[in-house]
């Protein structure tokens, strides 16, 4: 199954839009989920655990409750919106409540079938599921171009979306190798320090396509290159991915510059640069 832009940003059976935060640590900080429009709450579920799904038995434990904590609200003109994976005990509304656009409904969580903390939204109108990004019915053919004017997202948000490009969610220099599962739990690792015996440039990505190559460079304040590493092109699409390249040794105190670039078939899709202070 292709996503509504004919790409690979979905998987079979997924009929909604996932809006993520980085980590379970961020979930504990609390990120509000708000009403997309004026409407009325039809039904809710609360009291499901926030628990990342990693194994088959995790998956079996949420059978029939894949949405986790969530709600369904009715808007005008035949629109209905379902929200899923909200944080346990965060629901701020009950059936029958009338809400206005922007009202707080709950918090982003990881209840139900969630592999990272996020809110899943399914939008439908008169029973047809719509893709909020393109504004089209899911039953229609995909369209390879993104037209912000047709999106159901607010114009100021739609104008900033680049849905066909990969994202660099976070990057930096750590004092140890970076493990994807630890990123999802703890968030970005601490910055490398003068106590560490290795230094590792790392990055966390979403929506990488098969064939993508990732390059890391690390330079010191004099402009000397300490890391310059380009990985092998990816052998398959990656909805979420972590990569790193590092070296043995201790970085002296000082300022460094880390750069990550994402290239597909020779075209630079994303580049991110940051100053890092090592102490
Ligand atoms: Zn989803």
Short description:
This protein is mostly beta strands and 279 residues long. The chain has helices spanning 24-29, 56-61, 155-158, 180-186, and strands spanning 17-20, 32-34, 39-45, 69-74, 79-86, 98-99, 104-107, 118-125, 128-130, 167-174, 198-208, 212-220, 225-230, 238-248, 254-264, 267-278. It folds into 2 domains: 17-130, Glucose Permease (Domain IIA); 167-278, Immunoglobulin-like (Sandwich).
Structural overview:
The strands form four sheets. Strands 1, 3, 4, 5, 6, 8 and 9 form a seven-stranded antiparallel sheet that branches. The mean pLDDT is 94. This protein has helices at 24-29, 56-61, 155-158, 180-186, and strands at residues 17-20, 32-34, 39-45, 69-74, 79-86, 98-99, 104-107, 118-125, 128-130, 167-174, 198-208, 212-220, 225-230, 238-248, 254-264, 267-278. The chain is 8% helix and 41% strand. It has two domains: 17-130, Glucose Permease (Domain IIA); 167-278, Immunoglobulin-like (Sandwich), CATH 2.60.40.2550. The chain has 279 residues and is mainly beta. The relative contact order is 0.15. A hairpin with a 4-residue loop joins strand 12 and strand 13. It binds zinc ion (ZN). Zinc ion binds at residues 14, 16, 18, 120.
Output the CATH class name of the largest domain.
Mainly Beta
Secondary-structure element pattern, one letter each? EHEEHEEEEEEHEHEEEEEE
Number of discrete domains: 2
- Average pLDDT for all residues: 94
Structural class: mainly beta
Determine the N-to-C terminus distance.
48 Å
Instruction: Write down the Rg.
Output: 21 Å
Give the tally of β-strands: 16
Q: Say which CATH homologous superfamily of the largest domain is assigned.
A: Glucose Permease (Domain IIA)
- Describe the main β-sheet briefly: 7 strands, antiparallel
Report the β-strand fraction as a percent range: 35-45%
In the predicted model, the low-confidence regions spanning at least 5 consecutive residues are none
Reported CATH architecture of the largest domain: Distorted Sandwich
Give me the CATH fold name of the largest domain: Glucose Permease (Domain IIA)
């Amino acid at each position: 199954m292709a996503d509504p832009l004919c790409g690979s940003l979905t998987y079979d059976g997924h009929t909604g839009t996932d809006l993520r935060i980085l980590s379970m640590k961020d979930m504990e900080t609390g990120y509000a989920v708000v009403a997309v429009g004026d409407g009325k709450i039809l039904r809710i579920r609360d009291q499901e655990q926030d628990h990342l799904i990693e194994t088959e038995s995790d998956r079996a434990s949420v059978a029939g409750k894949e949405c986790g904590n969530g709600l369904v609200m009715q808007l005008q003109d035949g629109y209905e919106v379902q929200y899923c994976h909200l944080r346990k005990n965060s629901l701020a509304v009950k059936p029958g409540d009338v809400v206005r656009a922007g009202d707080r409904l709950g918090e982003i969580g990881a209840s139900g079938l969630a592999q990272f903390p996020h809110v899943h939204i399914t939008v439908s109108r008169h029973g047809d599921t719509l893709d909020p990004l393109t504004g089209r019915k899911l039953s229609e053919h995909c369209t390879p171009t993104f037209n912000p004017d047709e999106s159901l997202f607010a114009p100021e948000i739609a104008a900033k979306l680049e849905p066909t490009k990969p994202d660099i969610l976070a990057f930096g220099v750590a004092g140890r190798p970076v493990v994807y599962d630890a990123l999802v739990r703890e968030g970005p690792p601490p910055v490398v320090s003068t106590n560490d015996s290795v230094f590792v440039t790392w990055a966390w990505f979403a929506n990488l396509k098969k064939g993508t190559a990732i390059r890391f460079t690390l330079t010191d304040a004099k402009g000397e290159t300490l890391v310059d590493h380009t990985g092998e092109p990816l052998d398959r699409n990656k909805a979420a991915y972590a990569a790193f390249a590092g070296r043995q040794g201790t970085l002296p105190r000082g300022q460094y510059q880390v750069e990550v670039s994402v290239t597909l078939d020779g075209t630079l899709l994303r580049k991110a640069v940051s100053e890092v202070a090592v102490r």
